[in-house]
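Troubleshooting log. The previous structure file for this entry was overwritten by mistake, so regenerating from the original sequence record. Sequence copied from the archived sheet and checked twice against the printout by T.R.
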Amino acid sequence: MKEYGSNVQKLVEHVVSVENREKRTKHAHILIELMRQIHPQMRDGNDYSKKLWDDLYVMANFELDVDSPFPPPPKEAVGKKPMRIPYGQSKLKHKYYGRNLELLVLKATVAPTKGERKAFISYLVKLMQAFFLQWNKDTIEVKTCLDQILELSGFKLQEEIDELRRDGIILDANPKDGNRTPNRFNNAKTPNGSLGQNKSGGKRYNKNRNNRGKFNKKRRN
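Regenerated output below.
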């Protein structure tokens, strides 16, 4: 075995040639400790000691007769090809989203209420935009996400998506909660073409109101 080197292989052959069984067993245990020191990073693995003894038997060509804590492995196991792992053969329509997104779309179609289905669609749009950014430098439009969700759902979410498009909103809610307050998008588009959320108006209004309060306080003084 290459991971132990030729010197260990020679020591294994010497241990096998020892005629006294007690002495041979003692040498085998010493050799196991040497093999353990060669690969100290493997000590945390499961059944590490058993692996070392299995390797020793394999290097001895199963001719080693010693008192070991583990029985020798079957000869048939050496060189046996591992079992093939079956892989899904179905093709993904949008590979950069992955299989889990398609499963989430199917889950959205069976949500009990329309509000929950809308909230689920909002969650999916944000998730798709995050996945899209991992492989692209630009963001993906909300309209494109809705078209893809509609396609993946087999057009079962047609009514909910039409309502979201008509109202121009994307619900900011958890898929399990359909009673959250929606975030409205203004009609202006960002440079990349996607709808942008207008949050500056409220902040400006609050700032002006605070400044007006400070001005009136100065006048009273």
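Residues 171-207 have pLDDT under 50 and may be disordered. Archived copy saved in two places this time.
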